Amino acid sequence: MLNFIYDALPAHVVFGVGSLERLGEEIMRLGASRALVLSTPEQRSSAADIAARLGEKAAGIFDRAVMHVPIEIAQQAREEAKRLGADCCVSIGGGSTTGLAKAIALVSDLPILAIPTTYAGSEMTPIWGLTESGIKKTGRDFRVLPKAVIYDPVLTVSIPPQLSAASGMNAVAHCVEALYAKDANPIISLVAEEGIRAFAQSLPLVVKKQNDLEARSLALYGAWLGGIALGAVGMALHHKLCHTLGGSFNLPHAETHTVVLPHATAYNASAVPEAMARVARAIGSDSAAAGLYDLAQASGAPVSLAAIGMKREDLDRAAEIATQNPYYNPRPVTREGLRTLLENAFEGHRPR
Ligand code: NAD
Protein backbone atom coordinates (compact mmCIF):
# COMPACT_ATOMS: atom_id res chain seq x y z
CA MET A 1 0.00 0.00 0.00
CA LEU A 2 1.34 3.45 -0.87
CA ASN A 3 2.08 5.63 2.13
CA PHE A 4 4.70 8.35 1.94
CA ILE A 5 5.81 11.96 2.37
CA TYR A 6 7.53 13.64 -0.57
CA ASP A 7 9.46 16.93 -0.54
CA ALA A 8 10.78 18.29 -3.84
CA LEU A 9 14.00 20.29 -3.68
CA PRO A 10 14.26 23.39 -5.88
CA ALA A 11 16.74 23.00 -8.74
CA HIS A 12 17.70 24.84 -11.90
CA VAL A 13 19.63 22.52 -14.19
CA VAL A 14 21.20 23.26 -17.55
CA PHE A 15 22.23 19.97 -19.13
CA GLY A 16 23.95 18.98 -22.34
CA VAL A 17 27.06 18.98 -24.48
CA GLY A 18 28.22 22.61 -24.78
CA SER A 19 26.01 23.88 -21.94
CA LEU A 20 29.01 25.63 -20.38
CA GLU A 21 28.47 28.25 -23.10
CA ARG A 22 25.48 29.39 -21.04
CA LEU A 23 27.59 30.32 -18.02
CA GLY A 24 27.18 34.08 -18.63
CA GLU A 25 23.38 33.79 -18.84
CA GLU A 26 23.29 31.74 -15.68
CA ILE A 27 25.37 34.25 -13.72
CA MET A 28 23.01 36.99 -14.91
CA ARG A 29 20.05 34.92 -13.85
CA LEU A 30 21.53 34.78 -10.34
CA GLY A 31 21.98 38.56 -10.43
CA ALA A 32 25.67 38.11 -9.55
CA SER A 33 28.56 40.25 -10.71
CA ARG A 34 31.51 39.20 -8.49
CA ALA A 35 31.97 35.44 -8.66
CA LEU A 36 34.58 33.58 -6.65
CA VAL A 37 35.64 30.58 -8.76
CA LEU A 38 36.57 27.45 -6.80
CA SER A 39 38.59 24.39 -7.80
CA THR A 40 41.14 21.88 -6.59
CA PRO A 41 44.81 22.63 -7.33
CA GLU A 42 44.65 19.92 -10.05
CA GLN A 43 41.78 21.71 -11.79
CA ARG A 44 43.26 25.22 -11.60
CA SER A 45 43.26 25.51 -15.40
CA SER A 46 39.53 24.73 -15.52
CA ALA A 47 38.94 27.46 -12.91
CA ALA A 48 41.02 29.87 -15.01
CA ASP A 49 38.88 29.02 -18.03
CA ILE A 50 35.72 29.77 -16.04
CA ALA A 51 37.18 33.06 -14.80
CA ALA A 52 38.10 34.02 -18.37
CA ARG A 53 34.57 33.22 -19.57
CA LEU A 54 33.14 35.37 -16.75
CA GLY A 55 35.42 38.28 -17.56
CA GLU A 56 34.80 41.22 -15.25
CA LYS A 57 32.18 39.19 -13.37
CA ALA A 58 34.98 37.03 -11.92
CA ALA A 59 36.25 38.40 -8.61
CA GLY A 60 39.00 35.80 -8.20
CA ILE A 61 39.98 32.13 -8.02
CA PHE A 62 40.46 29.99 -4.93
CA ASP A 63 42.08 26.71 -5.99
CA ARG A 64 42.74 24.92 -2.73
CA ALA A 65 39.73 22.57 -2.49
CA VAL A 66 40.64 19.14 -1.10
CA MET A 67 38.75 15.98 -0.15
CA HIS A 68 36.36 16.20 2.84
CA VAL A 69 36.58 20.00 3.28
CA PRO A 70 39.09 20.55 6.11
CA ILE A 71 37.90 23.42 8.31
CA GLU A 72 41.19 25.32 7.80
CA ILE A 73 40.66 25.40 4.01
CA ALA A 74 37.00 26.36 4.49
CA GLN A 75 38.05 29.30 6.67
CA GLN A 76 40.62 30.47 4.11
CA ALA A 77 38.03 30.30 1.33
CA ARG A 78 35.43 32.13 3.45
CA GLU A 79 37.92 34.91 4.16
CA GLU A 80 38.87 35.15 0.49
CA ALA A 81 35.19 35.46 -0.47
CA LYS A 82 34.80 38.27 2.08
CA ARG A 83 38.03 40.03 1.07
CA LEU A 84 37.01 40.02 -2.60
CA GLY A 85 33.43 41.10 -1.90
CA ALA A 86 32.18 38.03 -3.77
CA ASP A 87 28.44 37.79 -4.39
CA CYS A 88 28.38 34.17 -5.57
CA CYS A 89 30.57 31.05 -5.79
CA VAL A 90 31.13 29.14 -9.01
CA SER A 91 32.51 25.68 -8.26
CA ILE A 92 34.09 23.63 -11.03
CA GLY A 93 35.05 20.10 -10.00
CA GLY A 94 33.92 17.07 -8.09
CA GLY A 95 32.33 16.66 -4.67
CA SER A 96 35.34 18.19 -2.91
CA THR A 97 35.01 21.50 -4.74
CA THR A 98 31.23 21.63 -4.49
CA GLY A 99 31.74 20.87 -0.78
CA LEU A 100 34.00 23.90 -0.41
CA ALA A 101 31.38 26.15 -2.03
CA LYS A 102 28.85 24.77 0.44
CA ALA A 103 31.17 25.56 3.36
CA ILE A 104 31.23 29.19 2.20
CA ALA A 105 27.46 29.33 1.63
CA LEU A 106 26.80 27.87 5.07
CA VAL A 107 28.09 31.01 6.79
CA SER A 108 27.49 33.65 4.13
CA ASP A 109 24.33 32.73 2.18
CA LEU A 110 26.29 33.29 -1.07
CA PRO A 111 24.48 31.50 -3.93
CA ILE A 112 26.32 28.63 -5.60
CA LEU A 113 26.50 27.93 -9.31
CA ALA A 114 27.91 24.39 -9.49
CA ILE A 115 29.64 22.90 -12.52
CA PRO A 116 30.19 19.22 -11.66
CA THR A 117 33.01 17.32 -13.36
CA THR A 118 32.56 13.96 -11.59
CA TYR A 119 29.50 11.84 -10.80
CA ALA A 120 29.46 12.43 -7.00
CA GLY A 121 26.11 14.28 -7.03
CA SER A 122 26.77 16.79 -4.23
CA GLU A 123 25.44 19.63 -6.41
CA MET A 124 21.87 18.31 -6.03
CA THR A 125 21.91 17.97 -2.24
CA PRO A 126 21.54 20.29 0.76
CA ILE A 127 24.16 18.16 2.56
CA TRP A 128 27.36 19.85 3.75
CA GLY A 129 30.46 18.28 5.30
CA LEU A 130 33.36 19.78 7.25
CA THR A 131 36.37 17.98 8.71
CA GLU A 132 37.86 19.20 11.98
CA SER A 133 40.65 17.39 13.85
CA GLY A 134 40.19 14.34 11.63
CA ILE A 135 36.44 14.06 12.28
CA LYS A 136 33.99 14.81 9.48
CA LYS A 137 30.71 16.39 10.50
CA THR A 138 27.81 16.51 8.06
CA GLY A 139 24.49 18.30 8.15
CA ARG A 140 21.59 19.47 6.00
CA ASP A 141 20.94 23.13 5.30
CA PHE A 142 19.01 24.59 2.37
CA ARG A 143 21.43 27.53 2.17
CA VAL A 144 24.06 25.20 0.67
CA LEU A 145 21.86 23.79 -2.10
CA PRO A 146 23.24 25.22 -5.39
CA LYS A 147 20.93 27.74 -7.07
CA ALA A 148 22.04 26.61 -10.53
CA VAL A 149 23.86 23.60 -11.94
CA ILE A 150 25.51 23.33 -15.35
CA TYR A 151 26.10 19.74 -16.45
CA ASP A 152 28.33 19.67 -19.51
CA PRO A 153 29.48 16.14 -20.43
CA VAL A 154 32.48 17.63 -22.27
CA LEU A 155 33.94 18.48 -18.86
CA THR A 156 33.98 14.80 -17.90
CA VAL A 157 36.12 13.69 -20.85
CA SER A 158 39.28 14.35 -18.83
CA ILE A 159 38.31 12.13 -15.88
CA PRO A 160 40.80 9.26 -15.74
CA PRO A 161 39.00 5.92 -16.44
CA GLN A 162 39.49 4.60 -12.91
CA LEU A 163 37.97 7.73 -11.38
CA SER A 164 35.07 7.58 -13.87
CA ALA A 165 34.35 4.01 -12.82
CA ALA A 166 34.58 4.64 -9.08
CA SER A 167 32.70 7.94 -9.24
CA GLY A 168 29.97 6.31 -11.32
CA MET A 169 29.59 3.47 -8.82
CA ASN A 170 29.42 6.11 -6.04
CA ALA A 171 26.39 7.60 -7.82
CA VAL A 172 24.88 4.13 -8.32
CA ALA A 173 25.21 3.63 -4.55
CA HIS A 174 23.04 6.71 -3.91
CA CYS A 175 20.39 5.20 -6.18
CA VAL A 176 20.53 1.70 -4.66
CA GLU A 177 20.11 2.95 -1.09
CA ALA A 178 17.34 5.38 -2.13
CA LEU A 179 15.28 2.36 -3.24
CA TYR A 180 15.16 0.97 0.31
CA ALA A 181 15.42 4.25 2.27
CA LYS A 182 13.36 4.70 5.40
CA ASP A 183 11.61 7.60 3.67
CA ALA A 184 11.58 6.05 0.17
CA ASN A 185 8.81 7.29 -2.10
CA PRO A 186 7.59 6.33 -5.58
CA ILE A 187 9.01 9.40 -7.37
CA ILE A 188 12.51 9.02 -5.98
CA SER A 189 12.39 5.28 -6.65
CA LEU A 190 11.69 6.02 -10.33
CA VAL A 191 14.60 8.46 -10.34
CA ALA A 192 16.88 5.96 -8.61
CA GLU A 193 16.07 3.04 -10.90
CA GLU A 194 16.60 5.23 -13.95
CA GLY A 195 19.93 6.42 -12.50
CA ILE A 196 21.17 2.84 -12.14
CA ARG A 197 20.01 2.03 -15.67
CA ALA A 198 21.85 5.06 -17.07
CA PHE A 199 25.13 3.96 -15.47
CA ALA A 200 24.69 0.28 -16.34
CA GLN A 201 24.44 1.29 -19.99
CA SER A 202 27.12 3.98 -20.02
CA LEU A 203 29.87 3.24 -17.53
CA PRO A 204 31.56 0.33 -19.33
CA LEU A 205 31.60 2.50 -22.51
CA VAL A 206 32.84 5.66 -20.78
CA VAL A 207 35.94 3.91 -19.46
CA LYS A 208 36.72 2.31 -22.84
CA LYS A 209 36.44 5.32 -25.11
CA GLN A 210 37.44 8.75 -23.89
CA ASN A 211 35.49 10.80 -26.44
CA ASP A 212 32.20 8.93 -26.42
CA LEU A 213 30.05 11.97 -25.63
CA GLU A 214 26.83 10.01 -25.92
CA ALA A 215 27.93 7.59 -23.18
CA ARG A 216 29.29 10.50 -21.14
CA SER A 217 25.98 12.34 -21.41
CA LEU A 218 24.13 9.27 -20.20
CA ALA A 219 26.55 8.84 -17.28
CA LEU A 220 26.24 12.51 -16.26
CA TYR A 221 22.45 12.18 -16.49
CA GLY A 222 22.78 9.20 -14.12
CA ALA A 223 24.92 11.33 -11.81
CA TRP A 224 22.24 14.02 -11.74
CA LEU A 225 19.62 11.40 -10.84
CA GLY A 226 21.91 9.92 -8.17
CA GLY A 227 22.32 13.39 -6.66
CA ILE A 228 18.55 13.92 -6.59
CA ALA A 229 18.12 10.56 -4.82
CA LEU A 230 20.83 11.32 -2.26
CA GLY A 231 19.41 14.76 -1.54
CA ALA A 232 15.81 13.59 -1.20
CA VAL A 233 15.87 10.52 1.05
CA GLY A 234 18.00 9.09 3.86
CA MET A 235 20.74 6.55 3.24
CA ALA A 236 21.51 3.36 5.23
CA LEU A 237 24.19 0.73 5.94
CA HIS A 238 26.20 1.20 2.77
CA HIS A 239 26.75 4.96 3.18
CA LYS A 240 27.38 4.68 6.95
CA LEU A 241 29.93 1.93 6.43
CA CYS A 242 31.73 3.88 3.70
CA HIS A 243 31.77 6.95 5.95
CA THR A 244 33.42 4.84 8.69
CA LEU A 245 35.97 3.30 6.34
CA GLY A 246 36.85 6.63 4.74
CA GLY A 247 37.03 8.55 8.01
CA SER A 248 38.74 6.02 10.26
CA PHE A 249 41.01 4.22 7.78
CA ASN A 250 41.62 7.00 5.27
CA LEU A 251 40.32 5.04 2.29
CA PRO A 252 39.51 6.91 -0.96
CA HIS A 253 35.86 8.02 -1.07
CA ALA A 254 34.50 6.86 -4.44
CA GLU A 255 36.57 3.64 -4.56
CA THR A 256 35.32 2.63 -1.10
CA HIS A 257 31.74 3.02 -2.32
CA THR A 258 32.53 0.91 -5.36
CA VAL A 259 33.96 -1.99 -3.38
CA VAL A 260 31.40 -2.02 -0.56
CA LEU A 261 28.22 -1.57 -2.64
CA PRO A 262 27.75 -5.18 -3.88
CA HIS A 263 28.34 -6.51 -0.36
CA ALA A 264 26.06 -4.02 1.43
CA THR A 265 23.44 -4.85 -1.22
CA ALA A 266 23.86 -8.60 -0.60
CA TYR A 267 23.54 -7.96 3.16
CA ASN A 268 20.21 -6.18 2.72
CA ALA A 269 18.84 -8.34 -0.11
CA SER A 270 16.57 -10.61 1.93
CA ALA A 271 14.96 -7.63 3.73
CA VAL A 272 14.03 -5.61 0.62
CA PRO A 273 13.21 -7.95 -2.28
CA GLU A 274 11.27 -5.31 -4.26
CA ALA A 275 14.17 -2.86 -4.19
CA MET A 276 16.53 -5.67 -5.22
CA ALA A 277 14.29 -6.59 -8.15
CA ARG A 278 14.42 -2.98 -9.35
CA VAL A 279 18.23 -2.82 -9.06
CA ALA A 280 18.60 -6.12 -10.93
CA ARG A 281 16.14 -5.00 -13.63
CA ALA A 282 17.99 -1.70 -14.10
CA ILE A 283 21.32 -3.49 -14.52
CA GLY A 284 19.90 -6.31 -16.62
CA SER A 285 21.09 -9.01 -14.23
CA ASP A 286 19.45 -11.85 -12.30
CA SER A 287 20.89 -10.59 -9.05
CA ALA A 288 21.23 -7.04 -7.71
CA ALA A 289 24.40 -7.66 -5.69
CA ALA A 290 26.21 -9.79 -8.28
CA GLY A 291 25.05 -7.42 -11.03
CA LEU A 292 26.60 -4.45 -9.21
CA TYR A 293 29.83 -6.39 -8.75
CA ASP A 294 29.90 -7.27 -12.44
CA LEU A 295 29.21 -3.65 -13.43
CA ALA A 296 32.13 -2.44 -11.29
CA GLN A 297 34.40 -5.09 -12.75
CA ALA A 298 33.32 -4.41 -16.34
CA SER A 299 34.13 -0.74 -15.74
CA GLY A 300 37.60 -1.49 -14.41
CA ALA A 301 36.81 -0.31 -10.88
CA PRO A 302 38.50 -1.92 -7.86
CA VAL A 303 36.46 -4.75 -6.30
CA SER A 304 38.37 -5.45 -3.08
CA LEU A 305 39.17 -3.39 0.01
CA ALA A 306 42.66 -4.91 -0.06
CA ALA A 307 43.23 -3.26 -3.46
CA ILE A 308 42.41 0.22 -2.14
CA GLY A 309 44.62 0.16 0.96
CA MET A 310 42.58 -1.51 3.74
CA LYS A 311 44.58 -3.72 6.08
CA ARG A 312 43.23 -7.09 7.16
CA GLU A 313 44.08 -6.37 10.82
CA ASP A 314 41.72 -3.35 10.76
CA LEU A 315 38.61 -5.32 9.77
CA ASP A 316 37.59 -6.13 13.37
CA ARG A 317 37.91 -2.51 14.42
CA ALA A 318 35.96 -1.36 11.36
CA ALA A 319 33.08 -3.71 12.26
CA GLU A 320 33.23 -2.42 15.83
CA ILE A 321 33.13 1.27 14.89
CA ALA A 322 30.41 0.79 12.28
CA THR A 323 28.07 -0.78 14.84
CA GLN A 324 28.68 1.76 17.62
CA ASN A 325 25.95 4.25 16.67
CA PRO A 326 22.59 2.81 15.67
CA TYR A 327 21.08 3.99 12.36
CA TYR A 328 18.28 2.98 10.03
CA ASN A 329 18.84 -0.10 7.89
CA PRO A 330 16.20 -2.42 6.46
CA ARG A 331 18.00 -5.44 7.98
CA PRO A 332 19.32 -5.22 11.56
CA VAL A 333 23.03 -4.48 11.60
CA THR A 334 25.02 -6.89 13.77
CA ARG A 335 28.73 -6.92 14.48
CA GLU A 336 29.06 -10.49 13.17
CA GLY A 337 27.08 -9.69 10.03
CA LEU A 338 29.23 -6.66 9.33
CA ARG A 339 32.43 -8.57 9.97
CA THR A 340 31.43 -11.15 7.32
CA LEU A 341 30.43 -8.37 4.92
CA LEU A 342 33.84 -6.70 5.44
CA GLU A 343 35.68 -9.99 4.97
CA ASN A 344 33.94 -10.54 1.63
CA ALA A 345 34.63 -6.95 0.57
CA PHE A 346 38.26 -7.25 1.67
CA GLU A 347 38.78 -10.36 -0.43
CA GLY A 348 36.72 -8.99 -3.33
CA HIS A 349 34.45 -12.06 -3.55
CA ARG A 350 31.61 -11.88 -6.06
CA PRO A 351 28.36 -11.99 -4.00
CA ARG A 352 26.26 -15.06 -4.65
P1 NAD B 1 36.94 14.92 -5.81
O1 NAD B 1 36.06 16.09 -5.97
O2 NAD B 1 37.79 14.87 -4.57
O3 NAD B 1 37.86 14.77 -7.10
C1 NAD B 1 38.90 13.80 -7.12
C2 NAD B 1 40.05 14.30 -7.99
O4 NAD B 1 39.64 14.29 -9.35
C3 NAD B 1 40.46 15.74 -7.69
O5 NAD B 1 41.84 15.87 -7.82
C4 NAD B 1 39.76 16.53 -8.79
O6 NAD B 1 40.39 17.75 -9.09
C5 NAD B 1 39.87 15.55 -9.94
N1 NAD B 1 38.85 15.73 -10.97
C6 NAD B 1 37.54 16.01 -10.81
N2 NAD B 1 36.93 16.09 -11.99
C7 NAD B 1 37.86 15.86 -12.94
C8 NAD B 1 37.84 15.82 -14.35
N3 NAD B 1 36.71 16.00 -15.04
N4 NAD B 1 38.99 15.58 -15.00
C9 NAD B 1 40.14 15.35 -14.33
N5 NAD B 1 40.23 15.36 -12.98
C10 NAD B 1 39.10 15.63 -12.29
O7 NAD B 1 36.11 13.55 -5.86
P2 NAD B 1 34.55 13.24 -5.78
O8 NAD B 1 34.46 11.78 -5.68
O9 NAD B 1 33.81 13.92 -6.86
O10 NAD B 1 34.07 13.91 -4.42
C11 NAD B 1 34.34 13.30 -3.18
C12 NAD B 1 33.96 14.21 -2.04
O11 NAD B 1 32.63 14.70 -2.23
C13 NAD B 1 33.97 13.52 -0.70
O12 NAD B 1 34.49 14.39 0.27
C14 NAD B 1 32.51 13.24 -0.43
O13 NAD B 1 32.22 13.09 0.94
C15 NAD B 1 31.87 14.44 -1.05
N6 NAD B 1 30.47 14.22 -1.47
C16 NAD B 1 29.51 15.00 -0.88
C17 NAD B 1 28.19 14.86 -1.24
C18 NAD B 1 27.15 15.75 -0.62
O14 NAD B 1 25.97 15.64 -0.95
N7 NAD B 1 27.52 16.64 0.27
C19 NAD B 1 27.82 13.91 -2.21
C20 NAD B 1 28.80 13.12 -2.80
C21 NAD B 1 30.15 13.29 -2.42
Keywords:
352 residues; six-stranded parallel sheet; two-stranded antiparallel sheet; 11% strand; globular; binds nicotinamide-adenine-dinucleotide
Oligomer: single chain
Major sheet size, sense and barrel closure: 6 strands, parallel
Residue stretches low in confidence (pLDDT < 50, at least 5 long) are none
Strand content: 5-15%
Instruction: State the total count of DSSP E strands.
Output: 8
Q: Portion of residues in helices? A: 40-55%
Distance between the terminal alpha carbons, to the nearest Å? 31 Å
> So how many helices?
13
Radius of gyration using CA atoms only: 19 Å
Bound molecules: nicotinamide-adenine-dinucleotide
Shape by Cα distribution: globular
Question: What is the SS-derived class?
Answer: alpha/beta
Strand order of the largest sheet: 1-8-5-4-2-3
Round the mean pLDDT to the nearest integer and report it.
96
Give the H and E element order.
EHEHEHEHEEEEHHHHHHHHH
Provide an overview of this structure.
With 352 residues, this protein is α/β, with parallel strands linked by helices. The strands form 2 sheets. It has a 6-stranded parallel beta sheet, sandwiched between helices. Strands 6-7 form a two-stranded antiparallel ribbon. The longest helix has 21 residues. Nicotinamide-adenine-dinucleotide binds next to helix 4, strand 6, helix 5 and helix 9.
Summarize the helices and strands and which ones pair or pack:
Layout: E1 13-15, H1 23-30, E2 35-38, H2 44-54, E3 58-62, H3 71-84, E4 88-93, H4 95-108, E5 112-116, E6 127-132, E7 135-140, E8 148-151, H5 161-179, H6 186-206, H7 213-232, H8 237-249, H9 253-268, H10 273-283, H11 288-298, H12 315-322, H13 335-347
Parallel strand pairs: 1-8, 2-3, 2-4, 4-5, 5-8
Antiparallel strand pairs: 6-7
The chain binds nicotinamide-adenine-dinucleotide.
